[in-house]
Design a protein that fits this description.
five-stranded parallel sheet; Rossmann fold; alpha/beta; 5 strands
Length: about 160
């Protein structure tokens, strides 16, 4: 798969309070160098002490938005991964607060593609949000019952510098 080549060997922090989610992500990202954390405190320390290529942050169980602040301060792009906070408001908040991507847990099998989207966008000097809009447009239209969510996010797809 093309995305595997893009993410191979990347240093990734994966944070989630659910062990089964961590185990699944470790399996899907086996081509990467991985650290995992299941708590806010553990993740914050890892973010502060290591130079990750990218972080995958759960929103709800580990205070993902606070971790996002730490990732941003270290120039570590972050993918916000969520099930319980899956809403257009949380997507918009993720974009506003500097996340590189917003990924639904029910699409976790595509995590490699999501990370590759971020790395490719950064390499191309464009916003990863544009790639998210392309990849997940139909999914979010169905999930959020229409296209109003898109209007909020499109500005990040056009203006974000990475």
């Amino acid at each position: 798969m093309e995305s595997e080549k893009v993410i191979e060997g990347k240093y990734v922090l994966v944070v989630d309070d659910e062990q089964d989610v961590l185990d699944t992500l470790v399996e899907y990202l086996e081509m990467c160098r991985l650290d995992t954390a299941s708590s806010f405190e553990e993740a914050k320390k890892l973010l502060e002490d290591n130079d990750y290529d990218i972080a995958v942050l759960d929103i709800m169980g580990v205070n993902g938005y606070e971790l996002l602040k730490t990732a941003n301060s270290r120039n570590i792009p972050a993918v916000m991964l969520t099930a319980h906070a899956l809403s257009s408001d949380n997507m918009n908040r993720s974009a506003e607060e500097g996340a590189a991507y917003y990924a639904p847990k029910d699409k976790i099998s595509q995590i490699g593609d999501f990370l590759a989207d971020v790395f490719e966008a950064i390499d191309e000097g464009i916003s990863p949000w544009g790639k998210l809009l392309f990849r997940l447009d139909r999914y979010f239209n169905k999930k959020f019952h229409g296209t109003d969510w898109r209007k909020k996010i499109e500005r990040y797809a056009k203006t974000r510098d990475f």
